Amino acid sequence: MIGFFDSGIGGLCVLSEFRKRFPTFDFSYYGDRVNCPYGDKEDEEIVDLTEKGVERLFDEGAEVVILACNTATVHSIRYLQQVRFPDKKILGVTIPGAEKIVESGYRHVGVLATEGTVRIRAYKERVHILDDSVSVHEVAAPELVPLIEQGIVKGDSVRRALLPKLAEFRNIEALVLGCTHYPLVRTEIEALLPGITIVDPGFEAAAKFAAYLERHPEIEGKITKNGTLRLSFS
Ligand code: DGL
């Protein structure tokens, strides 16, 4: 089974991309809605909450855990992979997003993300490891996640939250949805930024997972495949 962790419902967008590509795999999703949003929390709290969520998925029997949350990924993935669960497989969504930017040859990109992700310049750092000549402008949109968690994904309040943030992007070729909740407001973003290519790291993570499994047949062989889905939320 593949486990998915997010602070709330945003990671369901990532899960949905994986289910489209791997329909026979078993999936278990845990969203920590009680503690959502993570975006405005201190680093240590994000790491602590993510660790608990990931542990829960491994206890359930996950062979691989996908951190379907940018904020959780950028603050905790190194610690979780290298220190806390060195014998387990944990993958995030930010590297596939950064790779897509560089592979596509974009020179000027925007990243819309949570405060927690923007604060540590997470996408800029990951893109610049691959190509430091790409200009990466990161903007935080803290009002969006609470709206989306209430099921508000279009209309005036979403546009009001988006407009001043999107106005900060000048001359970009592509916009990265640097929070897994944002694909849920993608229609509004596209309407406000016509002609700009949207990069969805969750989509990219699912696309790259097939190649990952080809490189790691031992993991592919362990993943149970009964087409089941379990959803749980705090
Ligand atoms: N969905 C998460 C992300 O990708 C976090 C949203 C939040 O809890 O602030 O960053």
Please count the beta strands (DSSP E, at least 2 residues each): 9
Structural class: alpha/beta
Approximately what portion of the residues adopt beta-strand conformation? 15-25%
Low-confidence blocks of residues: none
Shape: globular
Indicate the percent of residues in helices.
Answer: 40-55%
Report the major sheet.
Answer: 5 strands, parallel
Fold-level CATH name of the largest domain = Rossmann fold
Report the span from N to C terminus. Answer: 20 Å
User: Mean pLDDT score, rounded?
Assistant: 98
Query: What is the CATH-assigned architecture of the largest domain?
Result: 3-Layer(aba) Sandwich
Kindly report the spatial arrangement of strands forming the biggest sheet: 4-3-1-2-9
Per CATH, the class of the largest domain reads: Alpha Beta
Radius of gyration: 17 Å
Determine the number of helices (DSSP H or I, runs of at least 4 residues). 11
Overall structural domain count: 2
Pattern of helices and strands? EHEHEHEHEHHEHHEHEHHE
Q: What ligand species are in this complex? A: D-glutamic acid
What does this molecule look like?
The mean pLDDT is 98. Helix 4 packs across helix 6. With 234 residues, this protein is of the alpha/beta class. It contains eleven helices and nine strands. The chain has two domains: 2-92 and 203-233, Rossmann fold, CATH 3.40.50.1860; 95-200, Rossmann fold (3-Layer(aba) Sandwich). The chain has helices spanning 11-21, 43-59, 70-84, 94-104, 115-119, 122-130, 144-149, 156-166, 186-192, 201-215, 217-222, and strands at residues 2-6, 27-31, 64-67, 89-91, 108-113, 135-140, 174-177, 197-199, 229-233. The strands form two sheets. A five-stranded parallel sheet has the order 4-3-1-2-9, with helices on both faces. The structure holds D-glutamic acid. D-glutamic acid binds at residues 6-8, 10, 36-39, 69-71, 114, 117, 145, 179-181.
